[in-house]
Amino acid sequence: MGIDLEALYIDLHRHPELSFQETRTAGVVTRALSEMGIPFEEGVGRTGVVAVIRNGDGPVVWLRTDMDALPVEERTGLDYASTARGVDPSGAAVPVMHACGHDMHVTALLGALERLAASRAEWSGTVVAVFQPAEEFGAGARAMIADGVLERFPAPDVVLGQHLTPLPAGMIGVRPGTQMSASDGLTVTLHGRGGHGSRPHATIDPITMAAATIMRLQTIVSREVDPRDVAVVTVGSVHAGLKHNIIPAEATLQLSLRYPDDAARDRVLEKVERVVRAEAAASGAEQPPTIVTDHTLPPTINDLAATDRVTTAFRREFGEHAVIDPGMFTGSEDVSWFARDSGAPLVFWFWGGVDPELFARATAAGTVDRDVPTNHSPFFAPVLHPTIERGVEALVVSAREWLG
Amino acid sequence: MGIDLEALYIDLHRHPELSFQETRTAGVVTRALSEMGIPFEEGVGRTGVVAVIRNGDGPVVWLRTDMDALPVEERTGLDYASTARGVDPSGAAVPVMHACGHDMHVTALLGALERLAASRAEWSGTVVAVFQPAEEFGAGARAMIADGVLERFPAPDVVLGQHLTPLPAGMIGVRPGTQMSASDGLTVTLHGRGGHGSRPHATIDPITMAAATIMRLQTIVSREVDPRDVAVVTVGSVHAGLKHNIIPAEATLQLSLRYPDDAARDRVLEKVERVVRAEAAASGAEQPPTIVTDHTLPPTINDLAATDRVTTAFRREFGEHAVIDPGMFTGSEDVSWFARDSGAPLVFWFWGGVDPELFARATAAGTVDRDVPTNHSPFFAPVLHPTIERGVEALVVSAREWLG
Amino acid sequence: MGIDLEALYIDLHRHPELSFQETRTAGVVTRALSEMGIPFEEGVGRTGVVAVIRNGDGPVVWLRTDMDALPVEERTGLDYASTARGVDPSGAAVPVMHACGHDMHVTALLGALERLAASRAEWSGTVVAVFQPAEEFGAGARAMIADGVLERFPAPDVVLGQHLTPLPAGMIGVRPGTQMSASDGLTVTLHGRGGHGSRPHATIDPITMAAATIMRLQTIVSREVDPRDVAVVTVGSVHAGLKHNIIPAEATLQLSLRYPDDAARDRVLEKVERVVRAEAAASGAEQPPTIVTDHTLPPTINDLAATDRVTTAFRREFGEHAVIDPGMFTGSEDVSWFARDSGAPLVFWFWGGVDPELFARATAAGTVDRDVPTNHSPFFAPVLHPTIERGVEALVVSAREWLG
Amino acid sequence: MGIDLEALYIDLHRHPELSFQETRTAGVVTRALSEMGIPFEEGVGRTGVVAVIRNGDGPVVWLRTDMDALPVEERTGLDYASTARGVDPSGAAVPVMHACGHDMHVTALLGALERLAASRAEWSGTVVAVFQPAEEFGAGARAMIADGVLERFPAPDVVLGQHLTPLPAGMIGVRPGTQMSASDGLTVTLHGRGGHGSRPHATIDPITMAAATIMRLQTIVSREVDPRDVAVVTVGSVHAGLKHNIIPAEATLQLSLRYPDDAARDRVLEKVERVVRAEAAASGAEQPPTIVTDHTLPPTINDLAATDRVTTAFRREFGEHAVIDPGMFTGSEDVSWFARDSGAPLVFWFWGGVDPELFARATAAGTVDRDVPTNHSPFFAPVLHPTIERGVEALVVSAREWLG
To answer: Which of C17, C227, D132, D248 is the most interior residue, by most CB within 10 Å?
Structure first.
């Protein structure tokens, strides 16, 4: 009966879309919702979709998924691998891939809605399904909130969400308290002075400026953060120059920063700015660097009581050993904004998609980090089963904790 | 009478074309040649043009210009500034500008041909005018030679050429012996392993690898080359990554290297390769870097006797103080291939295009390198006069040394 | 009655001695033991002292202190500040200071022995007091074991020890499981080729080699260790050269590495070696670097059950809020060898020595790391009271858990 | 007859003395002068000696040598190798070696004085022999001038001097104009904040600050100096820290800078200061670095006319091919102060001390820089003959150009 979730997943995987461009994906979602007879609104927060199942009195449970893909060139070798290309915000043509599993997230949520819609007799309350765009920009949740998602739809009593992760398929990881770091994305433009590659003395070389800056940024984590704290300073991109023999006028860096809380955020941001400015000064730059914050993600903090409820239910349904505390993750999410702005508790968990045998072999060999493709890797490829089923079940089981 | 050289220059300046794409430029050239009644062949070495004036017995003088422009965004503020865009070999859309004066070189050569054609009675011999493409790739001369330019046209008894430079307009700089460095252009691809920006330990970060490599490459010139030797190691571009929070799998550097001779070339290339490989090893790279030589330019060596003839003629015509020995330049040229492969002597000189008052003020203030825009700068803007006239005269005067 | 512990502490503080040179300190200890009538042996593990109080049947409790000071020039401004100088293993004259509180450790142990000796009627069993040398070298515990301390004296049923830390005076910090990191001390010698400072090209400059190595070592913590793991790579010293204008032949680095366990140790050591070797290769070194392990410290792992007993007793005696779990420390200790080699459980705790008002002000201002002098700082200066008293009480209270 | 120059040289070589400590050397000199009956004064500029041969009317010719040795550990393996140790200005015990040939300079000057004294009948005028201390500190000439050497002795009509260099024994290198660079020696102290090696976040690590500074200083020569100019920025020493696990409060660098003239000096000094200050700022240093100029050496500029006279005389006496223009040297000297302050012309030349066969082999193999030990190398070892003889002759021949 119903939706062929495997086919739907493969279709989404073959047709990934970049952030705020998820129009085909939204179409797949709304077509499935229509088939299930679930009412929805499109275009919430640009390309988002919100569906509501009203089923009598009772709590309002938000189930949230994200929908967007990444500018990564897929190398999984799967027969349904993406060959898609897209246009990023700078206008550049880029490869696109569902390298973070959002296609699986959408699939699982549609599967859960189908199960909940089919079992209306067993529960009462309201389910709000939030298909959010642009999680990878850290911008989609804010866009939906700015578009009135918290006012136009029943406000949540609890916000539930889940994310694929490199755990064995079938496993769930969830922890009370801080589950994921806060994060900022910065763009740093270093201003030099261009000229001929053979006459460096007549220029202010932005490429050595960038290299020295990148090397110096390493010392923030290695020397300036308490070794017991969790912090990451990643330079995710560097771009400067067009040709061997022209020294360009500028270099541009994109930084991704991670920290457990807002106090750490302030300290690290101050250090990054200090390093960037001083390295420009060391080069004799005539103009200070430009630093722009592109996105800001809060820490993902799981409500203690609600997480305890969900964890207990998972253990009951999936077995004691299938549910672990994975520790804090250094990744970041914008799901928190829905909980923060509504005051509702949040429970956000991870579910595994890795072939359990591969995982076991890599664990035994101590090579998990090398052999198990992680999120954002061009080799990221969840096994279809039982990943789809466990994703569906986790949403249904947790929602039913509130819905009866 | 004749060609409006100022209008022709402005037209070329407004319509710059990237290397091996000089079709509109070649059209401007061939139209002018047709008007002057000088026979020519098009498409020599892809987009090159060769014109020949046969005028009785006597030496064969080659007058060579280049035609291509650069991926630079013009910022001169001139009312005839370029707003052109082109597509570079990687398929990227880039701004295009005549930031190295090849438009002026073409203009001067057409002006010289007009003068020589109009004064046939005064001299005898053969003039071969070579409008070469793709000097900026270091590839045009070789393309023309591969296309038979040395066999299909009268072989040179002397090869003459000139280049705009940041000297005061009206001045000539020429030196016997090594006038410009040898050069290589390399593309270095550093192979890491991509992943999520929050999990650097599961990746091999090619961006810190690139930064460390760039910093280390500086020590070749600062520590490993005799301070009395002339050598340059420029990283002209660095590109890696698409997004803040994805660590990419690769970083790509384009290097421009300069040295006075082939022995120095061998030493510096060995050092560059050593540094690049070791820095990849320091990162624990699983694959060694890929190093590709994109172009190789010989040193530009002026023939001693021929240069003496030309220098003497210039001093006689333009005045003692208008002709200087500018020292060796660290820029490079592919004009030498015509002389090397034919065995003819080469004389290659520089002529100034800077407003003499600006130059004098900057010299007095010790700020020439800062205030006088150099070749490849987005502010490169020769004054029209007497730059055009001196370029024309220099070609005519030097050619007539051989032609009588 | 008894020992004037304040006077004894001040005397020790004024006369600090470097590792394995603690002969005056051992004299102070043995004089006090003699006065108390407690039998002892000197010269155990070169400069160590072991005292034994036998008091009937019952468990054997080891109470361990360290005795050595550091090559730090005291800047506390105290009227009893050290002005001592010593000779380090290289033969260099260095300032010496009790910058890590071992003078306070000795004082507290002598105070505890006095209390235990005076209250023999209340308990039964054996107390072994171990005054260990050379903790700062990570070598004293091994020296005592090699000298038979585990065989020549009653073997421990439990090993207890304590360390001053920048907590408010009166507070105790103790945690079950891993309390302090494992650590290694390495000496890395980079081999270049010396020569005249004006002719770098005729040398292989070990100073740029060292600088590049130090910068690259930062990337181990910033890029290669899981951000959630605790690891430190400190270069504690760098020495090369004697004069401005001579490029030396060698540079020497001393590294201090920290990690939570032996698996992490193996990974980090491998990375350090990889970086050091590759950076030498990047310099074209003709000889690979020499890497010597100077000391190896195991992790300090508190026995779960024994720590629970001690923590409960501390809370009962000192108040709930005076006893905290301080988290894992990145410092290291060699006390573990006594427990590891004897198989006895270990409990090792920290006690505070900071003026509580200063601490409160700094905490409120968020400037603890800046304003509260930490161990090894030239400003390290515990307040005398109640630091001495709490140190004595903590030893007595914990020992009595076993002795009744 | 006379002095056994070989024995005298070997004696000096075995007993090298550091700058301003040349008392034994001065004793050897004065003993020889006494034996030759030449009047002298001792203690001029602390440890210098000045001898005067008055021989009737005529020009006053100054012949200058230096006397000091270097803190280098000799590794020549010669049976007369130095095993001496000295105490440097910081109080450290250091090895001492005549690694720059000043022992040979003294020997040659004594030999020349003996020849001139013995041939008084053949010439007339005055010879002033200046045995200068502390050339290696760049301080000896100024000390002698401050002590009145230009007033207390006949002022020069010409200043002549010579230096050993890695040319084949028998050869002379001399060039008109700039023969050696100007130079400064700086001491840079970087101020951090010390602490425990396991708690880098509570410190400001001066060792990463130093490493980043050293790497950045490389870009001055590689990016900011015209590749055609001669400039050197050498970090000759770096010192910080005493122990693996203490992060020190400071790091100290000694820099040796070289440039052809005073304008370049100003530019490079400004860049060095800019880099040093900015790198401290990048570390968040609470105190700016301290930069002290330890010595300043002028460029060594040979008077054109006087150099022509000397060169012609050398060619006549030693053969055309034995006298070359070696180009500008990047080493520096303080001999110029005598000429600058007196207004007399200077001629300063180099003479070779390398076994001609070794030199020829290394030249053929292209390994001169590697195989021929250069000044300041621990392997620097001139062959005794004809080095001694050519040094004596060069002084006599050049002096006789003025003395007749």
So the answer is: D132
The number of beta carbons lying within 10 Å of the beta carbon of residue D128 is: 21
Q: What is the pTM of this model?
A: 0.84
CA–CA dist C94, C91 (Å, integer): 9
In chain D, DSSP finds a helix count (H) and a strand count (E) of 12, 18
Q: CA D73: distance to chain centroid?
A: 18
Nearest residue to A53 via CA among A124, A104, A2: A124
- Paired sense of beta strands C93-95 and A93-95, if any: unpaired
A242 vs B181: CB contact, 8 Å cut-off?
no
CA-nearest residue to C88 within chain D is D242
Q: Do A246 and B91 touch (CB under 8 A)?
A: no
What is the spatial distance between Cα C171 and Cα D39, in angstroms, rounded to a whole number? 80
Mutate to test the interface with D, among B218, B224, B279, B330 (most CBs of D within 10 A): B218
pLDDT tens digits, one per residue of D15-46:
999 999 999 999 999 999 999 999 999 999 99
Q: How far is CA C208 from CA A213, B219, D234, D374, in A?
A: 18, 8, 9, 20
Model confidence band, residue B41 (pLDDT cutoffs 50, 70, 90): very high
Beta-carbon contacts of C42 under 8 Å, excluding residues fewer than 6 positions away, are C26, C30, C49
Contact yes or no for C282 and B271 at CB 8 A: no
Rounded Cα–Cα distance for residues C168 and C358 (Å): 9
Q: What is the pLDDT of residue A35?
A: 96
CB atoms within 10 A of CB B39: 11
User: Hey, of B224, B268, B270, B276, which one would you mutate to test binding to chain C, going by the most C CBs within 10 A of its CB?
Assistant: B224
Range B114-124 average pLDDT: 97
Asked whether residue D1 carries a pLDDT value surpassing 70, the answer given is no
Q: Which residues of D fall within a CB distance of 8 Å from C183?
A: 198, 245
Which structural domains are found in chain B, ordered by start? 5-181+299-403 (3.40.630.10), 182-296 (3.30.70.360)
Selected residue of B198, B220, B370, B377 to mutate for chain A interface (largest A Cβ count, 10 A): B198
CB distance B196–A239 less than 8 Å?
Answer: no
> How many helices (DSSP H) and strands (DSSP E) are in chain C?
12, 18
Spatial separation of the C-alpha atoms in residues D53 and D32, rounded to whole Å: 14
Which residues, in sequence order, are CB contacts of C165 under 8 Å at separation 6+?
C173, C326, C329, C350, C351, C352, C353, C375
Closest CA to B127 of B138, B112, B106, B147: B112
CB contact under 8 A, A211 and B214: yes
Residue D377: its chain C contacts at CB < 8 A?
A: 194-196
D250 is in an annotated binding site: no
Dihedral sign for Cα B307, B309, B311, B313, please: negative
Question: Which residues of chain A are within 8 Å of residue D271 when distances are taken between CB atoms?
Answer: 284
In whole angstroms, give the CA distance from residue A222 to residue C357.
Answer: 31
Neighbouring-strand partners of residue A295: A185
pLDDT digits (tens, 9 = 90+) for D253-306: 999 999 988 888 999 999 999 999 999 999 999 999 999 999 899 899 999 999
- DSSP 8-state class, residue D120: G
- Kindly determine whether residue A243 and residue B237, on different chains, have CB atoms separated by under 8 Å: yes
pLDDT band of B258, cuts 50, 70, 90: very high
- Residue pair D25/D106 in contact (Cβ under 8 Å)? The answer is yes
Where would I find the H helices in C246-348?
262-282, 304-318, 336-342
Give the C-alpha separation, C82 to A91, whole Å.
Answer: 67
Question: How far is CA D65 from each of CA A36, D128, D160, rounded to the nearest angstrom?
Answer: 101, 11, 9
| Two tokens, residue C201 | 């090209």
Q: Which helix (H) or strand (E) segment is B128 a member of?
A: strand B125-132
